[in-house]
Design brief:
Elements lengths: L8 H5 L2 H14 L13 H6 L2 H11 L7 E7 L5 E6 L2 H18 L16 H12 L5 E5 L4 H4 L2 H9 L5 H11 L3 E3 L2 E3 L12 H18 L3 E5 L2 E6 L2 H18 L10 E4 L8 E4 L2 E4 L1 H14 L8 H19 L5 H23 L2 H10 L4 H8 L5 H4 L3 H6 L2 H6 L5 H10 L1
Parallel strand pairs: 1-4
Antiparallel strand pairs: 1-2, 3-7, 3-8, 4-5, 6-7, 9-10
Helix pairs in contact: 2-5, 13-20, 14-20, 15-16
Length: 424
Amino acid sequence: MKPAFSNDLFEHVLQEDNLSAAWKRVRANKGAAGIDGMTIDEFPAWVRSGNWKALKQQLVTGCYQPSPVRRVEIAKPDGGTRQLGIPTVTDRVIQQAITQVLTPIFDPEFSEHSFGFRPGRNGQQAVKQVQSIIKEGRRFAVDVDLSKFFDRVNHDLLMTRLGDKVKDKRLLRLIKRYLRAGFIDNQFKGESRVGVPQGGPLSPLLANIMLDSLDKELEKRGHKFARYADDFTILVKSQRAGERVLRSISQYLQSRLKLVVNTDKSRVVKTNESQFLGFTFKANRIHWHPKTLLKFKQNVRKLTNRNWGVSMKYQLFKISQYLRGWINYLGIASGYQHCVELDHWIRRRVRMAYWRQWRKPRTKVRNLMRLGVHVQAAVACGITSKGPWRSSKTPGINQALSNAYLKSQGLYELRDGWIKLHHS
């Protein structure tokens, strides 16, 4: 890679091996179509038709204009919605190619306290860093909530920070065009004078570049902290110290970075009342935050509800897929007994789903007998007036749909995942 002051970074972006690697990354990440409707699967044929060659020529001559992003809203875990901006597949490839060139330039100088969207770093490391700081005797957390950070990034400040290391004007011009590309929302075209749309491959790196000055400021002041994208917490030894830090850092964010601090959600709390990336901390241990468990149960209920209309085999596959992903990230918590209790609750939800699928009393009796339940017990279960949830606790159903049977059908157990993470 050329040094940061090089004037030919744009050529590195357009190198065939870099573009090929960018396409492979975009293809692996999948994702929805942008405003042009072209899907990941349709992109190779589009390239073979000669379109990519023409687009690359536009990039070389500096006349390429990125497409607006397609704006969609997704639900946030704590309520409300988050706006995503979905670029076209073509723009995702170009953004990824830019990211691959800029990351080796910026990432080595990022703070060791920054963990989000960086090579070899993740949220689990951020949580463990908070835990290690708490063990030093810092029992209060300054939780600063940035209101709609990605929507409020100041373009001039961001471009100035990019220009400190990137001297290739062509690359800077293209990045600025991406920032100003605008959005399409239900056929309404909007301008983007501020903000970095969440959803593009370049956005996480730009966010880290913007917030790196915050990291450096916190380090200069001697604070202990961890940051994952726009989610960060500062650990202090007293409530009074925390209040001072909250005031001064809020002032810095608003005056120097032009960001908005949500005063209603920003606070100083004891670490056992704090929330960071879905976790809280008690007696130096990592625990799941109550909101994390609430969201987990809501998702399991959706996966086991009556209105899905799919086979139990597929339902068990999707449930297990969700459970495996959840424990692989959140399993760092001290939650073995929680896993045992959740597994018990999940199995009952699954038994209820089976019971609903069997529907008619005759089908219920036949399936119970097929699974080894004595005829009298099967009939008693089959004709019961109890609802599915109460029925899922009866001995006959528990005998037929035993723990071992559900596991043989592919139901994943959180307990197994937790043990593997902590003892393998």
